[in-house]
């Protein structure tokens, strides 16, 4: 049976290293990193994600600032809030919690992400950061947190990426696309599957490394897997569960039980990529503050 990656444990290790770096910074220059978040609307899941980010930041000594805007706010209001954070030298990281609400007042996501200062784009979603990630010879200032978390899980689990066939299911700007770019940077041969792909099962079966980020619960069956494959399940899909505290629980895109019989290594949901995403956000914020203070 497959080895199960302990994403929670790996993320804890990263967070504790960040905490000691933050206290070293405080001791030596009397400064700490600070992160600003803009939350638009009242989505329950977004509120939970933001709450987790606040708690994780405070735990490692990173300051946190949040602006909540109503669902019907204008694009201009969001951009003004972003501009005030851009200009504030005491802020090192800025993020807009996605997805933005689909209200009557249309908020153009690309336009909004474009306003965030490149030096503070700790989510790594600014078009220039993504563009630099895609180009050889260029280095993005920030790498998106979930994709970076996926690669970090592979590296810390001793998985070799170079020369391997990697298949990424999903091509979104925030997960699938940057993950495929990162895998290429690590010299994998990368194939991307998406909603229009014909016969995905056949292509998935070629994967030495399979990253599932479609957001479709139980999409990947055991029959999709090459024996010995390494699987990173990014899918975080709520399914009804009357027995659990909130009436639902989270499952991945991969049928976990079937997969553990065929794969060699697998990251579970929950407890795999999820905790890594937050750890990478803290990492990017610390890096940003170090750059701002010229602190090494
Ligand atoms: P998205 O809806 O923006 O993109 C989904 C992608 O999957 C699209 O490119 C689509 O073409 C593809 N797809 C959809 N159905 C498919 C199918 N049947 N076969 C192949 N491809 C298919 O979603 P997203 O924002 O990229 O998120 C994907 C999943 O990852 C979701 O479950 C989300 O909750 C989860 N997620 C987890 C974290 C984390 O920290 N663990 C972070 C972000 C997203």
UniProtKB/TrEMBL annotation:
| Keywords of this entry | Hydrolase, Multifunctional enzyme, One-carbon metabolism, Oxidoreductase
Its Enzyme Commission number(s) read 3.5.4.9
Span within the full-length protein is: 69 to 364 of 364
Q: Please state what class of enzyme this protein is.
A: hydrolase
Q: Domain named Tetrahydrofolate dehydrogenase/cyclohydrolase NAD(P)-binding: which ranges?
A: 144-292
What is the scientific name of the source organism? Rehmannia glutinosa (Chinese foxglove)
Signal sequence region:
none
Protein name (record): methenyltetrahydrofolate cyclohydrolase
Tetrahydrofolate dehydrogenase/cyclohydrolase catalytic domain residues are 5-123
Superkingdom of origin organism: Eukaryota
């Amino acid at each position: 049976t497959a080895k199960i990656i302990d994403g929670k444990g790996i993320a804890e290790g990263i967070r504790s290293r960040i905490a000691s770096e933050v206290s070293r910074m405080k001791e030596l220059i009397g400064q700490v990193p600070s992160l600003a978040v803009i939350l638009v609307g009242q989505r329950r899941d977004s509120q939970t994600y933001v709450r987790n980010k606040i708690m994780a930041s405070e735990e490692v000594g990173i300051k946190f600032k949040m602006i909540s805007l109503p669902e019907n706010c204008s694009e201009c209001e969001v951009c003004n809030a972003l501009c005030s954070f851009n200009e504030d030298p005491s802020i090192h990281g800025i993020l807009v919690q996605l997805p933005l609400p689909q209200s009557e007042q249309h908020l153009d996501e690309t336009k909004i992400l474009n306003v965030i200062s490149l030096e503070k784009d700790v989510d790594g979603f600014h078009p220039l950061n993504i563009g630099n990630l895609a180009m050889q010879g260029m280095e993005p200032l920030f790498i998106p947190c979930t994709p970076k978390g996926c690669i970090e899980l592979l590296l810390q689990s001793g998985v070799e990426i170079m020369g391997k066939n990697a298949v990424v299911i999903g091509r979104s700007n925030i997960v699938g696309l940057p993950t495929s770019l990162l895998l290429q940077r690590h010299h994998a041969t990368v194939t991307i599957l998406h909603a229009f792909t014909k016969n995905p099962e056949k292509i998935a079966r070629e994967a030495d490394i399979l990253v599932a980020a479609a957001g479709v619960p139980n999409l990947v069956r055991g029959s999709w897997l090459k024996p010995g494959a390494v699987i990173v399940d990014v899918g975080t899909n709520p399914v009804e569960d009357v027995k659990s505290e909130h009436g639902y629980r989270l499952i991945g895109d991969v049928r976990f039980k079937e997969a553990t019989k065929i794969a060699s290594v697998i990251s579970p949901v929950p407890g795999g990529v999820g905790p890594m995403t937050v750890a990478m956000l803290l990492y990017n914020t610390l890096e940003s503050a170090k750059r701002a203070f010229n602190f090494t």
